[in-house]
């Protein structure tokens, strides 16, 4: 397994070249973009937990054109973001929240929450969710509870 959380934020060209080599090794069909099956292989190599649908989440955040493909520039951003988690554990949840907040209101409401819960593998009553609202601090607390339960269940 690759130590994803130990990858430094890139300061030198050699580091970017290393990430490019990783990208090429994952891009099995050689089309210069990564599809969902290729990202799934990467996440397995990186030992990502299975508590969430990370493939869908990664495409939500790093496939801005919603083409089902992540190019090298967006892949590099993903790797940089993973490194930032080491110093700021709320960084990735913030990226998630922004991606789910499709209207940019700063509050997740009804239809924005349904895909969020789906990616987080939470079974919910869609009628109840449509009436819900969640701010970023509430989202963080929800994530902390979910991650805490996941950790407790492993021990």
Concise account of the structure shown:
The protein has 155 residues and is mainly alpha-helical.
What does this structure look like?
Helices cover 57% and strands 6% of the residues. Helix 1 packs across helix 4 and helix 2 crosses helix 3. The strands form 2 sheets. The protein has a two-stranded antiparallel ribbon. Strands 3-4 form a two-stranded antiparallel sheet. The protein is built from 8 helices and 4 strands; from the N terminus they run H-E-H-H-E-H-H-E-H-H-E-H. The two termini are 21 Å apart.
Radius of gyration: 16 Å
Give the count of helical stretches. 8
Strand order of the largest sheet: 1-2
Beta fraction of the residues? 5-15%
Query: How far apart are the first and last residues' alpha carbons, in Å?
Result: 21 Å
DSSP strand tally: 4
The helix content, as a percent range, equals 55-70%
Overall SS class:
mainly alpha
Q: Report the order of strands and helices.
A: HEHHEHHEHHEH
- What can be said about the biggest beta sheet? 2 strands, antiparallel
Whole-number mean pLDDT:
82
**Global shape:** globular
Low-pLDDT parts are 1-8, 147-155
């Amino acid at each position: 397994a690759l130590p994803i959380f130990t990858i430094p934020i890139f300061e030198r060209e050699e580091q970017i070249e290393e990430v490019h080599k990783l990208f090429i090794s994952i891009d099995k069909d050689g089309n210069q973009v990564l599809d969902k099956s290729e990202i799934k292989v990467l996440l397995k190599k990186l030992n990502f937990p299975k508590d969430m649908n990370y493939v869908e989440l990664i495409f939500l955040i790093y496939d801005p054109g919603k083409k089902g493909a992540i190019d090298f520039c967006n892949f590099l951003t993903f790797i940089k973001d993973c490194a930032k988690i080491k110093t700021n554990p709320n960084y990735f949840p913030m990226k998630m929240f922004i991606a789910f907040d499709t209207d940019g209101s700063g509050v997740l409401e009804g239809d924005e929450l349904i895909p969020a819960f789906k990616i987080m593998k939470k079974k919910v009553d869609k009628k109840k969710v449509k009436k819900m609202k969640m701010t970023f601090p509430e989202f963080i607390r929800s994530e902390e509870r979910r991650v805490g339960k996941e950790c407790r269940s492993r021990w």
